Amino acid sequence: MPPPSAVVPGVGIQALILCGPGVSLNTFTTNEEYPKALIPLANRPLIYYQLSWLKKSGITDITLITPPSTAAPLQAALQQNPHLTSLPSPSPSVLAPKGLDLNMGTAELLHGLPSPSLRLGVRNPRRVASGSLDVLWEAPLPSPKDGMLTAQPLLDLAARRRGRRGGLTVFYQTQNREESVKGEGTDFLAIAPLDDDEAPAVSHAVDGPAALRHNLSKVVLSMPMATVKEKMEQDKGLLLRHSLTKKHPRVKMLSTFRDAHLYIFPYWVKELALRQETFQSVSEDLVGFWAKAEWQRGLGEKLGMDEIFHRENGAHAENGSFDGESIEEEIDLLAMSTTSSRPNINVARPPPTSSFASRVSNVSSDAEKPELKIPPLLAYVQRGSAPFVRRVDSSAILLSTALRLAKLESIEEAGAAASPFALPQKIAHPEGIAQRTTITKSDCLVGQNTTVESKCVIKESVIGANVKICSGARLQRCLIMDGAVVNSSCTLTGCIVGRRAVIGKDSVLKDSEVGDGYLVEEETDAKNEKFMIFEGLEDDEEMGSAGEFDGEDELGF
């Protein structure tokens, strides 16, 4: 294996970002012209943060997968949006499979992708021994100040491993954080410590890759907390198999963390997904069953892992390289007993050496069929304040994340020490701000060509580009998107106002959402309301909170 210094960041890795239409943020995505990927987060498109994270990790082979209806606006944004065009080349490619719709699960999506789009094999496995990045989505943000979660330490860890490569998931803490949101969904996560030969033991906070390994554990169970509650109600308790505690006597169970939907998978995982017609979700089905297969005897064979791991030698030549597994062939993992084979599968391999035969001569017949070794599925469990990882899949999280990023010092203020996600200025167009207006620069952002008239008070808010705030308006903890108008003497608290929406004068809104292009009548007084426009309804009809779409955004960001 090459030393960590020989591993080139991002080489041989392909990132797939699933860009769904955005059902979970339907107030602002009812118009296909603005899919979820282009919703502004701190005055940048949401997709900017994923692309920036990948570019900083050295990953340039990036494919955006989206339904055909949203492919055109996504491609246009990549070519025209100044934030996206400022990213290093090459530009991501956009893939829009004809059969893709918002009801298709993430695991199902892998079934329908044409094989030429999945160039996941490592062409130079001796140079990169890290596997492939198979799926990446859901707004993983690097830390604003305290460091950045990049792929390089993960590549270093992979370079130290021997045998078939496993995968990695990312979980983040949802509670007792500045950007925490009440009622945010969580996942049930059971983890076990790594063995001594799997990663260096780190028991103290240090910089560099070791600090990342300190937060690595084995995933042994993973499922949504809603599913756990259903099982506990049905079974009158949480039932666990004895084989789990026998294999992993030191299990820690977490219930306040959430799957970030950030995965690093080797190529063989795609073949595993293709074999499971019932798998719908990567997070619930693929990750959940893989974690259980590591300790639940027989589950790996039922999932077909043994057949995947013991395909005939000719399969590699026919289908191409699988994440550098030619290295594994040269090492002869079968002789090392790291995997096993079903009796009816003929695998061509040299006869055992005399030393190997002497070691197994006295083994019973049951031991002649060694237990299938499942590659480990690791979890990076984010603790503390860094790195900053969030899934932006609801209006409340969108607002809290935007306000968190608004507190970053601008490049103008911090200079070289500024966060990679800091904007050049807190107020991009100072000439548009009238006198006798109060804007707290420490926690606000104001976009290009925005005008704020006199006697306005704006605190802890993000104002987009080409916005007009009329005299006497008061905004606190608000997100105002591009082109919106807030008329005079309005009071908005904890609100999100969509693109080109208009708030009538003397209106008082609290904890409400206003959809794109919606006109709120003058002197409206509302709390916890949604104002939306739907096709087939009059433009001025107010839908309120009853206008939400049913279902979950399976192709979320």
Tag the structure with descriptive keywords.
557 residues; 27 strands; elongated; disordered N terminus
- List low-pLDDT spans: 1-9, 114-148, 153-162, 200-205, 312-367, 536-557
Q: Measured on Cα atoms, how large is the radius of gyration?
A: 26 Å
- The helix/strand class is alpha/beta
Total strand count, please?
Answer: 27
- How much strand content do the residues show? 15-25%
Please tell me what the overall shape is: elongated
User: In whole angstroms, how far apart are the ends?
Assistant: 35 Å
Could you report the average pLDDT, rounded to the nearest whole number?
74
Share of residues in helices = 10-25%
Largest beta sheet: what is the strand line-up?
Answer: 11-14-17-20-23-26
The number of helical runs is: 17
Strand count, sense and barrel status of the largest sheet are: 6 strands, parallel
At a glance:
The protein is of the alpha/beta class and 557 residues long. 24% of the residues lie in helices and 17% in strands.
Structural account:
- Strands 11-14-17-20-23-26 form a six-stranded parallel beta sheet, with no helix packed on it. The chain has a six-stranded parallel beta sheet with strand order 12-15-18-21-24-27.
- Among the domains are: 206 residues, no CATH class; 97 residues, UDP N-Acetylglucosamine Acyltransferase, domain 1 (3 Solenoid).
- The N terminus and C terminus are likely disordered.
- It is of the alpha/beta class and 557 residues long.
- The chain starts with 13 loop residues before the first strand and ends in a 26-residue tail after the last strand.
